[in-house]
Amino acid sequence: MSGVFIAFEGIDGSGKSTAARAVADHLRARGLDVVLTREPGGTELGREIRAILLEGQNQLAPGTELLLMCADRAEHVATVIRPALNAGAIVISDRYAGSTRAYQGYGLGLDMSSVNTAIEIATGGLCPDLTILFDLDPELAHERRSGDAGQLNLLDVRDFDYRTRVREGFLKLAQASERWRVVDASQPLDIVAAQALELIGAVVDCRRVGP
Questions:
Q1: Residues 49 and 122 sit within 8 Å (Cβ to Cβ)
Q2: Is there a contact between 41 and 72 (Cβ–Cβ < 8 Å)?
Q3: Does the domain at residues 4-209 carry the CATH identifier 3.40.50.300?
């Protein structure tokens, strides 16, 4: 089987990371080769960039944030995603280019043509076969995040209007692409993960992914 690239997207607190782990475990239990990774932070360099972006003491300028995100992605694509796809694996990335468009484009108001140019340089044109958006109301997502203060990062402290713009941006991206699908992330995790698996089964050989 040729490699398949799946991206999980959504605002922080949507449960996409937990769902990604559950889906990866399910697929591995079926004997499939799965690489579960994330952005930012899917490489050694990426972990250093993630610390600057999310764990530092100061907010970065919007352009700096965009370029750091794309630097992380360039290294991620070159050293993790493409090699895994070439080896025939299913790659599940917790965030990809959709997050940059939603957070830095729609959220911070950066010029979308500039955002897209930076993404193109970073990815070399590599697009997911399927992007699953875990959609959740920003207030509920923030409540989930606030319940564990140790998980909060610099993006979490931005105002509600910002989080709303990000969510609306994700929905616009999903509406504009045939490769995006939306899951209601307010549902219980087992239901959300099952729906994600069903969507992945439409891309990967259903006989190998299905129950």
A1: no
A2: yes
A3: yes
